[in-house]
Design goal:
The chain starts with 29 loop residues before the first helix and ends in an 8-residue tail after the last helix. The strands form two sheets. The chain has a five-stranded antiparallel beta sheet with strand order 4-3-7-6-5, sandwiched between helices. It is 45% helix and 15% strand. The protein is an alpha+beta fold. A hairpin with a 6-residue loop joins β5 and β6.
């Protein structure tokens, strides 16, 4: 080995001894921020297979699964091999069909154990109120009936004397009709009998006076998967209420929107209906509800 040339800088340490250099994606540069936003495309592509298996009620052959996910069988198989190793997907050793695996179940159970429906709804209703600029709220079933637990007013508050903790009437409010339509009758029967008796005494127009009239209204609620009143509870005030279901298919809570007639679109498939329905369906999904196929 030759001696170093006098006056030259010392020889650098071997590359193997030098600390490895890693690209720091957390650096505050436009390129790093773009990488963080872009994510990992292959994960998103493979996730389409899991989405299909989540929606499908039975195990699937590879060709059918790949077709539904929009990819070739060979490509789908590569992803499924990894998912099988991780336990996210399982394969029947006889038929070769694929379905969700045990780890997918554990993830779902962990999510359900931590989810708070009212908390999720409170967050969702902030965006909904801003989108519609209408008064919105959340109701749950309490000891005395459907109870308002969250309320957000629009920039033009409706003249509705409602406050947190209010219990809504069963037969002449959108909230009450919603809960009557979807709760077991054993929970509502005694209250309904009293409400119908009061309605007969007060002769309220547009309010059911007997069980037959009530059932017609509740059938309409179930048909539309929403309850609506127009000036029934409070004059000049219209309201819509949508069901949010839990993982068992039971009614977890109701989301409500109301407003002044002339400023509130109470029509079926109108702007409020569509936005409120989308919000309720998204919340149901977050709570683990899988809607039946039509």
């Amino acid at each position: 080995m030759s001696a170093p040339i006098p006056g030259s800088p010392p020889v650098q340490a071997a590359q193997a001894d030098a600390p490895a250099h890693y690209e720091d994606d957390s650096a505050e540069t436009p390129e790093a921020e773009e990488k963080l936003r872009s994510g990992i495309q292959s994960i998103e592509v493979g996730f389409r297979l899991l989405e299909v298996l989540t929606q499908e009620r039975r195990a699937m052959m590879l060709r059918d699964l790949a077709l539904a996910a929009g990819m070739s069988p060979a490509k789908a198989h590569r992803y499924l091999v990894s998912f099988l190793r991780l336990g996210v997907v399982a394969q029947d050793p006889v038929s070769g069909r694929y379905e969700l695996g045990g780890f997918a179940l554990q993830m779902g159970l962990a999510r359900l154990a931590r989810v708070d429906g009212v908390k999720l709804a409170r967050i969702a209703l902030t965006a909904l109120r801003d989108q519609l600029d209408q008064t919105v709220g959340i109701a749950v079933w309490g000891n005395q009936g459907p109870t308002i637990v969250h309320w957000m007013e629009s920039s033009h508050p409706a003249k509705a004397a409602l406050k947190l903790g209010d219990v809504m009437p069963l037969t002449n409010s959108a909230t009450g009709l919603l809960f009557c339509a979807y709760l077991p009758r054993s929970k509502t029967q005694a209250m309904l009998e009293q409400a119908l008796s009061d309605a007969r005494l007060q002769h309220q127009p547009g309010v059911p006076q007997n069980a037959a009239e009530l059932e017609l209204l509740l059938d309409e609620v179930r048909r539309h998967q929403a309850a609506r009143v127009q000036g029934t509870l409070l004059q000049t005030i219209d309201a819509l209420a949508m069901p949010v279901f839990d993982a068992n298919g039971d009614l977890a809570l109701g989301v409500i929107a109301l407003g002044q007639q002339g400023l509130f679109d109470a029509s079926w498939d109108g702007s409020v209906d569509r936005a409120l329905r989308h919000c309720a369906q998204r919340l149901s999904y977050e709570l683990g509800y899988l809607a039946p196929r039509s």
